[in-house]
Predict the structure.
Amino acid sequence: MAKRVLELLGVSKVYTMGDSQVHALKGVTLEISAGEMVSIMGPSGCGKSTLLHIAGCLDRPTSGVIRIGGQDVMSMDDSQLARIRNRHIGFVFQSFNLLPHENALNNVVVPIQYSGIPRKQGLEAAKRALQAVGLGDRMYHRPNELSGGQRQRVAIARAIVNQPSIVLADEPTGALDQKSGREIMGILQRLNSEGRTIVVVTHDREVAQYSRRIVELSDGRIVADKRIDSVMVPRRELEAMDRDVSVARGLQLCVKCNFANRPQARFCSNCGFPMGVSPEQSSTIIRRMLGMMIPCPFCGTPNRPFAKYCLRCGGSMERALVAV
């Protein structure tokens, strides 16, 4: 059984506003295991952000029990909670919350500076985190030199740099266009596939579909908690970034199935396709495997898959073929 990284048991939150009371959460019980990707969704005002803030130790509940990594945090003081947040929780916010006058690298290294880790070691970890989100070539750019999607990727790198037990993302696509939003959700999916626990708060059902578990809130209560078999995968938006990340990690991507392989691999371990070929060459190889006609590189005349010379101009077909 997977270890539970977050447990909320009978959690309630009541805000007092003058003579009235607002019940933001009403006896919420939620357990999240290591390696899960969970979306918490619901309409505005349903209590989902309050739930995330309490789960992230940014706010205290009125009643209930909270455990993070098996530790009961209800009796901890502010300094103890700060250590829990720094060591166990990574945060991603809708508004990015980046330091405007610092470059991406210095933004990402901030959590490490509060961990007591030497700066040199921290900078190396920050570089790896930026490479993991495809920003290895943007680490010295300031936020105003980055697009919205790139800023959110910096925020994700900052969230994972300390290797937290869980990443909490509050409306991570809310300030982004649709394409950038899909890209961000794809990054979170990939981080989850590497073993990280991800919790996403959203009001958008399409965004929620990137998770295998969806928890729905309404009026401060959980009204549904379901697992889904088929999740959205934004492969097209991530192919170029995947290639950059793989190069940074010393891996090579298969041009046919996009699977990351060892640097020395001659064939893809997922689909068997030859490695080290360009996308243009891959098209020729696929045509050859399927027995399709191959255009002459000189005159464009279609020829048999294994023809050595063009039937029309006599040009060598070897320029259009790559040895398999």
Summary: The chain has two domains: 4-236, 268-319.
